[in-house]
Design brief:
The complex is a heterodimer.
Chain A: E1 5-7, E2 10-13, E3 19-24, E4 31-38, E5 42-50, E6 53-56, E7 65-71, E8 74-79, E9 88-95, E10 105-106, E11 110-114
Parallel strand pairs in A: 2-11
Antiparallel strand pairs in A: 1-3, 3-8, 4-5, 4-9, 5-6, 7-8, 9-10, 9-11
Chain B: E1 4-5, E2 11-14, E3 19-25, E4 32-38, E5 45-50, E6 54-58, E7 61-66, E8 71-76, E9 85-92, E10 99-100, E11 104-109
Parallel strand pairs in B: 2-11
Antiparallel strand pairs in B: 1-3, 3-8, 4-5, 4-9, 6-7, 7-8, 9-10, 9-11
Classes of the chains: A mainly beta, B mainly beta.
Chain lengths: 115, 110
């Protein structure tokens, strides 16, 4: 199994530009999560999908952030317009289900730098 | 109040020693607990999960859970330099999502 695949691995963009991060979950997994990691705040959940439906987006910082999951094998996280404070590592993770005992598997992350 | 708390470290231990990593959580009805290891510049990877009070052993790793004290720990026996990483504690309540602590950095010196 290829694991969770994220692209790009690194993104450097100028303030005000649109940024799109992409994620392919593990085949067969029906829960998908977007996390953001910074030194100050650690690993924060932004949004999670179950069966392609957004279930909890309370972690999305503001309207500049949006996420979609058009099908079971693809999700995007978009930031428009981007700001320097959005600089962080963004992880996508997936799990087989949202059962009590199921763990999440992480992709390699996208390191975003907004200058 | 932080939901999952860990000492940020670094925790420094010599090679061959036992490393003890600790985590406390605030939600009394949390049901499942996970330890992830994250090497610098890499993604978190699951190393242990525990759901019942007591100890769970897997190779050099032992997870310990005490729900009454809202405390979970990870022991690493015979620590190796390759164990040097940040260890993230994660907690789940029922069918909710994982809540992570900020992690403890472990440094194992040769």
């Amino acid at each position: 199994d290829a694991g969770v695949i994220q692209s790009p691995r690194h993104e450097v963009t100028e303030m005000g530009q649109e940024v799109t991060l992409r994620c392919k979950p593990i085949s067969g997994h029906n829960s998908l999560f977007w996390y953001r990691q910074t030194m100050m705040r650690g690993l924060e959940l932004l949004i999670y999908f179950n069966n392609n439906v957004p279930i909890d987006d309370s972690g999305m910082p503001e309207d500049r952030f949006s996420a979609k999951m058009p099908n079971a094998s693809f999700s995007t996280l978009k930031i428009q317009p981007s700001e320097p404070r959005d600089s962080a590592v963004y992880f996508c993770a997936s799990s087989l289900s949202q059962g009590i005992y199921t763990e999440a598997f992480f992709g390699q992350g996208t390191r975003l730098t907004v200058v | 109040q932080k939901e999952v708390e860990q000492n940020s470290g670094p925790l420094s231990v010599p090679e061959g020693a036992i490393a003890s990593l600790n985590c406390t959580y605030s939600d009394r009805v949390s049901q499942s607990f996970f330890w992830y290891r994250q090497y610098s510049g890499k993604s978190p990877e699951l190393i242990m999960s525990i759901y019942s009070n007591g100890d769970k052993e897997d190779g050099r790793f032992t997870a310990q859970l005490n729900k009454a004290s809202q405390y979970v720990s990870l022991l690493i026996r015979d620590s190796q330099p390759s164990d040097s990483a940040t260890y993230l504690c994660a907690v789940k309540r029922g069918y909710s999502t994982l809540t992570f602590g900020k992690g403890t950095m472990l440094l194992v010196s040769p």
